[in-house]
Design brief:
Layout (H helix, E strand, L loop, with lengths): L1 H14 L14 E2 L33 H14 L3 E5 L2 H12 L5 E5 L4 H10 L2 E5 L4 H11 L6 E6 L11 H10 L3 E5 L14 H7 L8 E7 L9 E5 L1 H10 L1 H4 L6 H16 L2 H17 L15 E2 L5 E5 L3 H13 L2 E2 L2 E2 L8 E5 L6 H12 L1
Parallel strand pairs: 1-11, 3-4, 3-5, 5-6, 6-7
Antiparallel strand pairs: 2-8, 7-8, 9-10, 10-13, 12-13
Helix pairs in contact: 2-10, 3-4, 11-13
Length: 377
């Protein structure tokens, strides 16, 4: 019975051209689909931690000095009182949102937040309202109408949206939170390592510019798996928040801890991100080169009369919007034949098909221009 069900659903996905596969791509392809924004995932580090695997959950016998050192650094880096690491970003969001909210509370979330945020909100049982993407006017309308229905009120957004490359309007969101006795939960997965003078993310960038304070931001979430070049997630906030999560978050309590060796490497990567801006400067140069090349402003090789429908806001992520799933897959195939890995993103992950381009600091100028030219072709 179950196998029949599985086969029927898979056949439906194939018919709609939405069938997914986890495949190994040719290692000779130059990837423009990697979240390794600073190239740190390719570093060869020779480190020796106290042990490779934790072999137990953090609250039994799985906590090691490497975990504590990493969490202390993250807290200092994020300007928070404390921090807690999770096995991955999905577990960090799921395990936090599902317990800091309950059925008496209310949450207002951007409609484009990541699936793990949606799952965490659903598990919490809180009343939920979704505002139109990056539309703070709609957020203000929703919160003014529904704020009284909840005890605690939380606004949830990503800092850099993973599928569109635009930034949250955090100064406006912060004003709305202040005016309506609400708090903010911000997912910095794609802002970490990219934004701010020490790469701590959009919050750091805006605090430094005097555009926001952190008074209303109750949770800063981030990952070690994008610019950090590894795997893992973290939550930064007050000491009370972190102690609460240690006692209540099921994805933390009931998971074997991150390997101590991984925590040690993560600390080295974050220290490098925080201390030097050379990698971020190169990343920004590559982002600017790709955008100007995409518009045909800086390419001696490629010519184009067509306008490209794309979204970006000075971040490494460019969404190249396509008219159909078939067109997205065809263009991805064309790029692959030219030696470049660019993955087509399809519904239901996104509402409309697109090619998601991720610019990294290690990309060569010639490859950046050539990919842009192929997209304009």
């Amino acid at each position: 019975m179950f196998n029949e069900f599985f086969s029927e659903e898979l056949n439906k996905a194939r018919e709609k051209n939405l069938y997914r596969q986890a495949q190994v791509y040719d290692s000779n392809l130059i990837s423009f689909s990697s979240n390794d924004y600073l190239g740190l995932a390719r570093r060869d580090l020779s480190l020796t931690a106290s042990r490779r695997g934790a072999s137990a959950s953090r609250i039994t016998s799985g906590t090691f000095n490497e975990h504590i050192e990493l969490e202390n650094f993250i807290a200092q880096w994020k300007g928070a009182e404390a921090a807690l690491i999770f096995n991955c970003g999905y577990m960090a969001n799921l395990g936090t949102l599902s317990v800091i909210l309950n059925s008496r509370d209310i949450v207002f979330a951007d409609e484009y937040v990541h699936a793990c945020i949606l799952d965490g909100i659903r598990l919490s049982g809180a009343k939920k309202y979704f505002y139109k993407h990056n539309n703070t006017k709609h957020l203000a309308e929703l919160i003014q109408e529904h704020r009284s229905k909840g005890k605690k009120s939380l606004i949830v957004t990503e800092s850099v949206f993973s599928m569109d490359g635009d930034k949250a309007k955090l100064p406006e969101i912060n004003e709305i939170a202040q005016a309506n006795n609400a708090s903010i939960y911000i997912d910095e997965a794609h802002g970490t390592g990219v934004l701010g003078s020490h790469g701590a993310g959009l919050v750091e960038e805006l605090v430094e510019a005097g555009k926001i304070t952190k008074d209303n931001i109750v949770v800063q979430m981030g990952t070690l798996s994008k610019a950090g070049g590894l795997e893992g997630g973290y939550i930064a906030g007050s000491k009370e928040l972190i102690e609460f999560l240690k006692n209540k978050s099921r994805t933390f309590i009931y998971s074997t801890a991150n390997p101590p060796l991984q925590a040690q490497i993560a600390l080295k990567h974050l220290q490098e991100i925080s201390a030097g801006k050379e990698l971020r400067d190169q990343l920004q140069k590559n982002i600017e080169l790709f955008e100007t090349s995409l518009r045909g402003e800086r390419s001696s090789t490629w010519q184009s009369n067509a306008l490209i429908n794309y979204s970006n806001e000075g971040t490494p992520i460019f969404a190249i919007h396509m008219p159909s799933t078939e067109a997205a897959q065809a263009k991805a195939k064309e790029l692959e034949e030219a030696g470049y890995l660019v993955v087509a993103i399809r519904p239901p992950t996104v509402p409309n098909p697109r090619l998601r381009i991720c610019i990294n600091s290690i990309h060569e100028a010639g490859d950046i221009e050539r990919v842009a030219g192929l997209l304009r072709k």
